[in-house]
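We close this part of the discussion by returning to an individual protein. The sequence in question and its structure tokens are set out directly beneath this paragraph:
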Amino acid sequence: MPEISRFFGIVIKIYYEDHPPPHFHAEYGEHEALIDIRTLVVIGGHLPPRALGLVVEWASQHQTQLLVL
């Protein structure tokens, strides 16, 4: 799975031909969550609240680019 970003110990990865809905994977330590790109809602897994807040903030700033991947 290609890594597209890394910040504050959080790794963002995305499969280009993955199942719907369009989403990315966020990993933080032993935690992982799948985030819907359109709604920025967790659709699987779990992240600690602070890490999730950083991921959602990052995703909101890059949402347009994520939708075209």
Summary: Residues 49-68 form the longest helix (20 residues). The chain has one domain: 3-64. The chain has a mean pLDDT of 94. The chain has one helix and five strands.
